[in-house]
Design a protein that fits this description.
Layout (H helix, E strand, L loop, with lengths): L3 H34 L3 H29 L2
Helix pairs in contact: 1-2
Amino acid sequence: MADPKSESRSQAIAAAVILVCAGLVIYFMPTIVLWIGNYSPWLATAVGICLVMAFFAVFWLRARYQRSKGR
């Protein structure tokens, strides 16, 4: 069985990495959506929605993984 302190640290690092990546995506999202909007406003809307949904999807997938491991 893994050390609880080590497991907690691993979870904290994983959460920090996810939040940093999400922060970068959200920071650059207006630039990305405006650039794509030059080609198609509908595509820009779809990309914006996908980027926001991806933030929640990562946490949903992580929760499923944690649940399957019985944690």
